[in-house]
Amino acid sequence: MMLAGFETVTYGTIYLGGDPINSLPPHKRGIGMVFQNYALFPHMTVGENLSFPLEARGVGKADVQEKIGRALEAVQLGGYERRRPSQLSGGQQQRVALARALVFEPALVLMDEPLGALDKQLREHMQYEIKHIHESLGVTVVYVTHDQSEALTLSDRIAVLNQGVIQQIDAPTDLYEKPNNAFVAQFIGENNRLRGRVRHMNGTSCRVELDNGHGEMQALAVNVSGSGTPTTLSLRPERVVIDPAPGSLPNRFEARVEELTYLGDHIRTRVNVCGTDQFIVKIPNAQGHASLKEGSTVAVGWEIDDCRALGT
Amino acid sequence: MTDAATTGAAAPADGPLTTADGRPLKSALARAERIRRVKAMLLVLPLLLFILITFLFPIALMLFRSVDNPIVADNMPRTIAALEAWDDRGELPDEAVFAALAADLAEARRNRTIGRLATRLNYETGGLRSTVTRTGRRAQRLKAPFKEALIGLDEDWANPETWAAIKRLGKRLTGVNYLAAVDRRYDVNDNVVPQPEVRRIYVGNFIQTLWMSVIVTIACLALGFPVAYLLSILPLRYSNVLMILVLLPFWTSLLVRTTSWIVLLQTEGIINDILVWSGIISEGGRIQLIFNAEGTVIAMTHILLPFMILPLYSVMKTIPPIYMRAAMSLGAGRHYAFWRVYAPNTLPGVGAGCLLVFILAIGYYITPALVGGQDGMMISNFIAYHMQRSLNWGLAAALGAILLFGVLILYWVYSKLVGLERLKLG
Amino acid sequence: MKRFLTASVSAVAALGLWAGAAAAADKLTVVSWGGAYSMSQVKAYHEPYEAKKGIKILSENYNGGLAEIKAQVEAGKVTWDVVDLELSDAVRGCDEGLLEELDLSQLPPAPDGTPAKEDFIAGTLHDCGVATILWSTIYAYDAGRMTGGKPRTIADFFDTKKFPGKRGMRKTPKVNLEFALMADGVPPGKVYEVLSTPKGVDRAFAKLDTIKGNVVWWETGSQPPQLLADGEVALTTAYNGRIFDAAATEGKSFEIVWDGQVWDIDLWAIPKGSPNKDAAVEFIKFSTDTRRLADQARFISYGPARRSSVALIGKHFEAGIPMGPHMPTAPGNFKNALQNNFEFWADYQDELNERFNAWLAN
After folding, report:
1. Which has the closest alpha carbon to B127: C348, C349, C195?
2. C51 touching B (Cβ < 8 Å)
3. What is the reported pLDDT for B113?
């Protein structure tokens, strides 16, 4: 909202393409905006909605028609100019809103949870559409969302904010694979957390003794300063290997299967290991996957790189 | 219904779905729907009857009154029959007609209906009332030849216009009330001609009524729009206080409000006092603000303002503030965004408010009666006059009917231009 | 069907009156004009009558005219028993069969034995009505605000040079046209003769034209004293009782100009088909005897309709002023007086009213 100019900046400066825009009113910032509820003007047709930003900027009549046509083509709604927003489906309305934000060729497009009002399936479909449109136009988009997978799907770079403080800015893969701190690890995707204390630093890796006294394990030292520091170990459920050959992995433990949940593409397994019974393992529903029974005992293990020792 | 559906689902898969007692699910559902509709109808019925009896029926009667004209036909049967043959309007009717008139008037006097007859004829031609009653008093003793005897009694009987009027009013259904309501009348040859200039009032007043209503409506819109806007954007606790202020006039007696305007606006009143005190006008230049059309417009605007604000407010409340933000983010300045995006979305409220205020204004009565003075009279004041004073209910009904049709036409035009489904009253 | 239709339209018109319907004969509904005038009737007539007969009298108010009576009679649902009517309405209601005819020989004679028909002032008894009071339309001014000379004649009312300031007039042609002609020099005896001719009407309107821009029009009797008190008008026509009342009870310095007064009478009448007709007749007989009529003049400055009452008029019940000199009929006031001609107005009020309204609007 500050970016778009609807709220005043109390401290700091916002730059757009190198120019400070703090004191510019919203309509002079040249930021295209897509809102959660589309905010299409109900009294105008699709064409009029699209021509609105152009007329407000005093674009010539001939150009207006051409630009509208191009923008609608881009969102695959060519020929919809005369429809009213109320005659369109939710997905179509969203595409019109997108076209409207793009039609005046803004320096930046700001999307504020644009897909929040759509159902799950349509949302996923739209994510890909937005991604493709974005790729073909090459315009910069600031996309606000609370849905992590949406963020992963769409973004080149993701900023994770907690209480107004940026926790980490990174490409999606790095953010997921290499979270800098416990909040980011927890926020992006699922993970198992174990608390412990660093016993011994060994270059990029370290040995960590668990607080509950259920043993020690090898972990990647991400931001622990030295032996004796408390740490949170973060471990993605899909990186846990079931029944590894002894000696093939540096970390190997006996676990008891507590609960199995069938989720189609994978089986979510809750096991009791290292003193916690909330340890999740995702077993892919692949050819010849391990078939477990509740109550049975099985060995689990993981690589050093997959077990990240983060600051608390 | 949910029960029926679930038991239906338990039925054998190969047959149609049935309810527990074996009836097809479809007809059971239709039956349940029907019972619900009948129940709903029964709930509405009392109101429907109420409206029928207190609203539609009287309106139908009013329309009937405006053309109903039994008095002359009932009380002068012989004269009317005899006048059938009278065609040459340049000449007086023959002796037989005069004889029939004498007999009719004598009987009407015996039946004590002559007053009504005289009054009815007097509406048509001023002065006939006393002619008829005077003749009636002596009719019993008149002797042939009646023509000379009657003309000897009163010169009016020697005027073909009198006879033309009687013949015209002998019809049980008549349009004379409507003619009178548009400042027209029949001449002796039954041609429609305008009233003499000094008696033309209704057409002018209809125009004046429309004009004043338009001004009141515009004034209400101009004053009400910002208030409604403010109401819709203020936080609830402030908007509630403002809303009470808006509704306050509703809770005060109309008479009290109108009278307080008199106190405020009269030439020795507060507004004028302030203007004189502040030196804007001189003591001798006090402005006449009341007892004229301006005063009526001011007082009516105040009284009708809530009827504009409430529909506007209810519409504005539903316009998401995000529209304005969206418009501004798309490059529109505040004013441009307001007029292109916000204002068009208030149109259903504007339409409803204007229609409501205009229709109420066009039929307004008490306020113009109290503060209208010489040129602030509205058509309702004349309707009231004919209802209460002149007792010419036929003319009152005709004026009322014209007003009613005027409003209906307006409604129709509105529905053509804007669409009634876009009307939003609250 | 037709009868039914007519009956029901009146029934609808009279809808509001059903609630007040009183069937019992121990109650009498007496309808009058409200305010100080009704109060004077309640004090002088109703209260003594209630005390004497043990009958409850309901006093209702209306604004004149025959509309309500017509609606009640046509609906066959008469709830008013006795109504205070103006003469023109009484005559018209009688002609149209809306009022009961009265046996005038039953009215009580004067204390000295003069029969009622001779005791009542000429023109105050009618087939369907018995007069109680004479009232008049006069014009008045506030002596406290009037600097310089005082207006004395009806011509002064139209003289805006000598007496600048606004004029209050009732928004109706009645009386105003008469005032205009008298101010233009027509003697009272000739007014209606002149007014019956188109030229006479033109002359009256021409005279009204001379002050049209200065007129504040009033509609109800309570407005003129208020207009005077507020200083809205310098001179105003008014009902004499209202001006007297404001002067006597509110201490205003209002003064009445009696020259050219147009007087009229109010009568008791009984709507046709009143269920309490006998009781209503008894009430009329009681309230129009010499004593009662004289009593009423203690409460309001309207003149009694009986000659024999004049001698018995006392002092105002509150202010203690002798009421005699404030009667329209007092010798000093009655010199240049004109009786309102109901016959003329019954004939011409429709077209004169149209012409008056057209004149106002242009």
Report:
1. C348
2. no
3. 86
Q: State the pLDDT at residue B422.
A: 63
Q: What is the pTM of this model?
A: 0.78
| pLDDT tens string A183-201 | 888 888 888 888 898 988 8
Q: Which two tokens stand for residue B30?
A: 């239709």
In the DSSP assignment, the letter for residue C258 is E
Q: Please give the pLDDT value at position B262.
A: 85
Neighboring chain A residues of B330 at a CB cutoff of 8 Å: 27, 32-33, 52-53, 56, 100-101, 104
Chain C positions touching B385 (Cβ under 8 A) are 353
pLDDT for position C21: 41
Looking at residue B423, its pLDDT comes to 63
Task: Look at chain C and report how many structural domains it folds into.
Answer: 2
The residues facing C168 across adjacent strands are: C216, C236
CA distances from B56 to B40, B50, B60, B68 (A): 22, 9, 6, 18
Q: Rounded to whole angstroms, how far apart are CA atoms B156 and B92?
A: 11
| Alpha-carbon dihedral B162, B165, B166, B168, rounded to 10 degrees | 160
Would you tell me which residues 91-120 of chain C have a C-beta closer than 8 angstroms to some C-beta of chain B?
92, 94-97
What is the mean pLDDT of the segment spanning B388-409? 91
Give the whole-angstrom CA distance, residue B360 versus residue B217: 10
* CA distances to B366, C350, C357 from B375, in Å: 15, 19, 9
Q: What is the residue whose two structure tokens read 């609370």?
A: A146
Quote the percentage of chain A above a pLDDT of 90.
15
One domain for residues A143 and A229: no
* Contact map slice: A 50-69 vs B, CB within 8 A: 52-53, 56-57
Distance separating alpha carbons of residues B59 and B405, to the nearest angstrom: 12
Q: Is the pLDDT of residue B407 over 50?
A: yes
Segments forming the whole domain that contains residue A234: 190-310
Q: Number of B to C CB contacts under 8 A, please give it.
A: 110
Please check the confidence at residue C18 and state whether its pLDDT lies above 50.
no
Q: Looking at the structure, do residues C203 and C296 belong to the same domain, yes or no?
A: no
pLDDT at residue C41 is higher than 80:
yes
The architecture in CATH of the region B202-422 reads: Orthogonal Bundle (1.10)
In tens, the pLDDT along A4-13 reads 888 888 888 8
Domain assignment present for C331: no
